[in-house]
Amino acid sequence: MPLKVLVMATCRWWNATAEGALLGARALERAGIRVLLTGQPGSPVLDRAGSDGIEAAALRLQGASFAAGLASLGRLMSRFRPDFIVAHRSEDQLAAVIAHGRIPVVRVRSDIRRPSGSPLARFVDSHTALEAYSSPFMPRAGYGRGRSGPVAVIPQPVDTCRFRPGPGGPPGTFVMAARLSEVKGHPTALRALRAAPSARLVVAGAEAQITERQLRDEAESLGVSERVEFTGYLDDIRTAYGRASIGLVPSLASEAVSRAALEMMACGLPVLAAATNGLVDTISDGRTGLLHPPGDSAVLGRQMAYLASHPEVAGRMAARARDACEALYSLDSVGFRWRRLLEALRDGWGTGASAPGYHGWSGDAPPEDG
User: pLDDT tens-digit profile of 313-348?
Assistant: First the structure.
């Protein structure tokens, strides 16, 4: 009998956690695992699960609805009879621990926020069979400090069929895809553009903590406004990636998982990224892109100028970036890793502090035939 996994992602809105949970569910299904995905009633994750052909069920676990949601969760578990519960949010993890019975609970951490050290959090952690991190930087940075149970590292996947190389944009055309926020490093990118006079920059993303007008004014003051285009929010970000030859992720912090970097690499773009958090694991410096100190526009500017004037180097990085996505981050690759890990947990592994072979991206690659 194939494994059955209840994936819990009761997010109200479409965000990085919801997207990661949905992609993870698709990866599990690609590995031959039956999945039931839960989400808030009317939430985008449920709508998109339906579009992707993933079995899904509504579940309320917010605020005053938590107690009623527990009862609904119990009924779901009785009907579906999962082998594992994979929780993507703290509310999901708490509900799963309360209702799980003998079903092992796995907590996926893909958010930059650190686990709480409260007594309740410690209780929930003690009843969680496995904690899975989406990037190696998280255990390195102590996200599992105080945890006695096993941990593992398995990346979030990217859909390498949806995001794939196209004709590409002119050499020296860079693309940023992020909400307009200080933490995403837009001012750093604009300052760096001064040192790369042949480069152009496409900025895609909705307004958040800062406005497009503010960034336009800054670009004007720096003398680079004629080489910057703001697209605003795009329903399909691939249209922006398709106009560029190089990706840019100059974030100052955050980036436990950089969806933009993964999508850019899958589209065959080398990525210039800040050396912060999960980006240092996603980008292989000098091979699939280049890393710079966060906020250092001088270093980033030299990198932009170099790749803009050496398209053959950018092209080699682009090919390696796509290859890395196919080998390490594709739905098939990540699904294979999840299956191997869950089978090991089912068969009795779990007494040690860590899962051998799951602390980096190099081990346990899927077989050549998928």
Answer: 999 999 999 999 999 999 999 999 999 999 999 887
Burial classification of residue 46, based on how many CB atoms lie within 10 Å of its CB (0-12 exposed, 13-18 middle, 19 or more buried):
buried
Return the exposure string of 223-232: e unless at least 16 CB atoms fall within 10 Å of the residue's CB, then b.
ebbebbebbe
DSSP string covering 325-363: IIIIISHHHHHHHHHHHHHHHHTT--SSSB-TT-SSSSS
Rounded CA-CA distance 29/52 in Å is 11
Domains of the chain: 4-157+330-346 (3.40.50.2000), 173-328 (3.40.50.2000)
Interior angle at CA 187, CA 182 and CA 191, nearest 5: 160
Q: Picking from 34-38, 112-116, 172-176, which range would have the lowest pLDDT averaged per residue?
A: 112-116
Q: What digits encode the pLDDT tens for the residues 93-129? A: 999 999 977 899 999 999 999 888 899 999 999 999 9
Residue 146, classified by CB atoms within 10 Å of its CB into exposed (0-12), middle (13-18) or buried (19+), is exposed
